[in-house]
Amino acid sequence: MNLMKHPTIVCACALAFALLAASPGANADFPVVDILNLKQAITRLQELRTMYAQGQAQLQQVQLQYDLAARMAEQIPNLPARYRAAFAVWAPITGPDTFGNASAWIAAENSGGTAEAAQGYLAASTPLSDYSAASFNELPPEAQARLKAEYATMDMGDATQVSAINTVGEIRAHSEALQAQLNQLDADSFSEDPAMNTTAALLNKINASDDLILHSLQDTNRLMVTLAEEAILARKSQRDMEAGATDANIAYRTQFPTVMTGVTQNMTQDLQNFSFTTNGN
After folding, report:
1. Does residue 94 lie in a domain region?
2. Which residues in 210-226 are b (16+ Cβ under 10 Å) and which e?
């Protein structure tokens, strides 16, 4: 029997020895016991018992923490087969170039560049002729204002189209490098290597994925801005046509009665002056 596990028995034995030592005839058969030292030993034994109980509690706590950490470190079995998926990949645009004026546009759609986009767009578009100053000055003010608006619509349309070609080209040009980074992040995310699954590694992968998402959102915003610009330009073109139709309607309503009055007056006068004769003259 291990007496260390039964401090009550130990204390009882120590008390018995103390009583025997205090009796008159005890010294003949038993050694002398120092009561003070015995008391200190009992106190120390109680302290050791308390420390042992605390150590057991701490050991149990550490065991629970270890079991939790081991459980948290377990990976999902066959992770790539469960979640890995294929996505569409950007591909360069290709097309025929019948008269040799489309290749520059196609190249700008694949690589971007403002100058390249402008060159390709102008090469494949119908050119806008200049309106001579002399012919422009001969127009009435209303016609001049309408012509200025029409030219402004076409100028802004050209600028918007060049910007859109450049945006699409830059995104497509960077798509290959972006796809390589996504593939690497995909491989690191599904890796079973312990070095790739530490807390620091997981945080690094999360930061990398957030960074890629931000850049993708930036490209998406650029495309959305391009669509918004085209929608604004389309609305302006529609508004110009509506304004022209409104001006024509106003001119008709204000000028037609006057014109028709003059026509009818002259027609009445001509009819009054006109007469039929029977002699052939």
Report:
1. no
2. eeeeeeeeebeebeeeb
| Separation of alpha carbons 151 and 133, rounded Å | 14
Q: Output the average pLDDT for the chain.
A: 81
Type of residue found at 187: A
**Number of domains making up the chain:** 2
Other Cβ atoms less than 10 A from the Cβ of 265: the count is 10
SS percent in the chain: helix, strand, coil, step 5: 80, 0, 20
Asked whether the predicted pLDDT for residue 26 surpasses 50, the reply is no
Burial per residue of 97-116, b for 16 or more beta-carbon CB atoms within 10 angstroms, e otherwise: eeeeeeebbbbbbbebbeeb
Pair 112, 50 in one domain: no
Select from 61, 38, 48 the least CA-distant residue to 3.
48
Res 182 pLDDT > 70: yes
